[in-house]
Amino acid sequence: MKNLISEFREFINRGNVMDMAVGVIIGAAFTAIVTSLTSDIINPFIKLITGGNGTEVAGLTIPVAGTENGIDFGAFISAIINFLIVAWVVFLIVKAFNKMKDAGSKVRGKNGEVMDEKAPECPFCLEEVREGATRCPHCAAELPAPATPTFTPAE
Q: What are the transmembrane regions (predicted)?
């Protein structure tokens, strides 16, 4: 039980919880905006196109006895549009974040050019070895110096 509590404490201290909380709050706020867009702009537009009377979408609602709304295809279409807009924006945010993260992690040369990092290789068998290794795990040769990555200008 103590191990579980210490793991939980480590998880909270890592900062992931705060990032997740901010994401949930921003997602909820953005979802409210998208819901307003679909219910206040897109739905009336669908009603205008399909000839609705302002209270229901003509041709997109099938009345069912014993239910208040019946089968409402307009509401379903609105939910799909709502989901697609939120998913698209989340995709763009994640893509922009990953691009920023990648740009910050690139190594730059003396002149500011972006450098590609190449994993260290054994000079004997030319297999990839881990950085800092003093012996090749493939051919067991002793390396002349601890393995270090090489950097070449990006093409």
A: 20-38, 73-94
